[in-house]
Write a structure and sequence with these properties.
Length: about 250
Amino acid sequence: MIDVLYGLYRWRLRRQINQEQIPDHIAVIVDGNRRWAKLRLAEAAAVGHRAGARKIPEFLRWCDDAGVRTVTLYLLSADNLHSRHTAELNDLFSIISKLAADLTKQRAWRIKHVGDAEILPADLAASLRAAETTTAGRNGLHINLAVGYGGRSEITAAVRAAITTHKAEGGTLETLSEWLTPERIGEHLWTSGQTDPDLVIRTSGEQRLSDFMIWQSAHSEFYFVEALYPDLREVDLLRALRDYSKRSRRYGA
């Protein structure tokens, strides 16, 4: 009976979504894995991280089926690399490597790593590169795996790269200030060539960006979900899509 009621509610939610207002790009702050493990009296945070990783392909299928074209998943921040214990980080490296490989076998999805590969262990960086290479020719759902990612670091790297480009083109210090526009900085971000996220979702009830896509989310809509990420249900996504489809985006106005 519960399954029947859940199916009816899911059908009703889909009917309430304006299909002409589906976000092109959803960015997700994957949060709550460690708390999920603690609630189950698990000593190792890896129990929660593995549960979160198991949820990701399912979540991506929901997005794909809804008509979303790009999903960015915030899996490991640059700050995490300094704040988490070594054992937890090593587990995370292994979990993310396996996840990247598993996602290459799903549908026609295309995978891209966004983040600083130089601060990651060589094995993890290689796994992310391999996933990119394997899926490079695909035209399905575009998946950004934000690993070793920090918004401030991304902007800093983009500005440095833009200055290098300007210099290579014969520019001078005197012409730099006029040449260096937001558009040119955007061309050097790790997400260069992609649309900015229309909708940013954070799970676990927290309401902060945590240095995630702070440039790209300048005009994004935000939606906060109480569920811990491993407990996320399709109806949680559908409610976010329904809410988004009813908003009037004013882009800073």
